[in-house]
Amino acid sequence: MHHTNPFDLGWLDPQVAPVLLVVIVLAVLCTAVLFCCGVVAYLRRRSTRYLLITIVLGLLLVRSLVGLCTVFGIVPMSAHHLLEHGIDVSIAVLVLYAVYRSGPGAERTQFETDGN
User: Fold this and answer.
1) What is the 3-state secondary structure (H, E, C) of the chain?
2) Is the pLDDT reported for residue 74 higher than 50?
3) How big is the CA angle at 67 (ends 64 and 71), to the nearest 5 degrees?
4) pLDDT confidence of residue 114
5) How many whole angstroms separate alpha carbon 87 and alpha carbon 82?
6) Rg (alpha carbons) of the chain, rounded to whole number
7) Averaged over 32-51, what is the pLDDT?
8) CA proximity to 98, closest of 54, 67, 66
9) Distance separating alpha carbons of residues 93 and 88, to the nearest angstrom
10) Which of 26, 54, 65, 69 could disulfide-pair with 75, CB 3.0 to 4.6 Å?
């Protein structure tokens, strides 16, 4: 595995590299905070809906980490695209499933009904 300097990548303009690095690091930090909030919410509610949202937040964190690893040359650009688009599809499917589960006729416990 060949690690590179994010300021010395062929596909990235050196003038844009610092901005890209800052944006991706902020994305990783923010999605990590969101994921932790999701875990806390799931542990408090223990419902399938909260579990699905926590998984989606975890996938967003993984997506940001893939971007960061790509900037440092750990993940090749071809794998980057496959991973990120695969994660995008997974996120979309999980969000739609969470919406479907919470629609009319969905089973809810008394706790979920009062807690929403």
Assistant:
1) CCCCCCCCCCCCCCCCHHHHHHHHHHHHHHHHHHHHHHHHHHHHHCCHHHHHHHHHHHHHHHHHHHHHHHHCCCCCHHHHHHHHHHHHHHHHHHHHHHHHHCCCCCCCCHHHHHHC
2) yes
3) 140
4) 46
5) 9
6) 18
7) 93
8) 54
9) 9
10) 69
Residues with Cβ < 8 Å from 88, sequence gap 6 or more?
63
58 Cβ neighbours under 8 A, 6+ residues apart: 35, 38
Closest CA to 66 of 58, 57, 77, 75: 75
* Residue type, position 17, single letter: A
User: Residues 2-27: what's their mean pLDDT?
Assistant: 72
